[in-house]
Amino acid sequence: MQGTWRLCDQEWGRKAAHNGRFVFAAHSSRYSQAGYVRDDSSEAQQWPSGAESEAGDMKTKESRFHVHDELTAPEPSLPVLKGALASGGQLSNFLGVLAGSPAALRAYARFRSELRHGDLPWATQQRIALAVAEYEGSDYSLPALHRTARDAGLGLDEIALAREFDSHDEREAALLRFVKALLETSGAPPVHYLEAAREAGWPDDQILEAVAHVALGTFTNLVTRAGDLPRDGSAEKARVAQAA
Fold first, then answer.
1. Whole-structure pTM value
2. Is the same domain home to 148 and 208?
3. pLDDT tens, 39-86?
4. Residue 102 sits in which domain range?
5. In CATH, what number is assigned to the domain containing residue 182?
6. DSSP 8-state secondary structure symbol assigned to residue 124
7. Which pick of 13, 64, 124, 140 has the fewest CB atoms within 10 Å?
8. Of 87, 177, 85, which is closest to residue 131 (Cα–Cα)?
């Protein structure tokens, strides 16, 4: 990924250009502790020392954890981050935060990779992810999941239904009702939800995969809640609004 990041001192005299898409600013917004702000423009936006991260009524949230990139992450996290960059472009705030713990990042990446190549259809995986994110109230995850669900072939009506643990496809709906019971019940969910999923044609290996996807979505939400992560791209939106 090509672009620039620039180091700006208080006299505004020194600039250092490197590969990446980041700007260093001592009093920037989302990355004030880390000193980095995403910059998708051809020229880095320079912010004066002491500038507030507000644009009108917009104020950018700051992550409570350091949001790493390939320049700041611990070395054991770099293979996962570089793989993500090679396949998807920009790093998400979620991966940037998780990179602070190489063990957690590697565990998440391996878990997610194995499940993505499991037996559950891709559209079913997206339905479960949407349902879990909606149940958990994940404002961070839902916008990205909406896009991936569309890529998986789900229409807007199916996306809306999935967020309510439902589907026009009765087979999919039966599995989502089991997922809902699993989330809402502190102990074992009522057995009839499991039996209904089996009767709808889901074998036990796929039902167990569905449980694993619930765990993956819940873990993602726990990390985003713990760090109070801003949505991806929110700092850039605030920067553009301030410049307007």
1. 0.71
2. yes
3. 333 333 333 333 333 333 334 568 999 999 999 999 999 999 999 888
4. 75-114
5. 1.20.1290.10
6. H
7. 13
8. 177
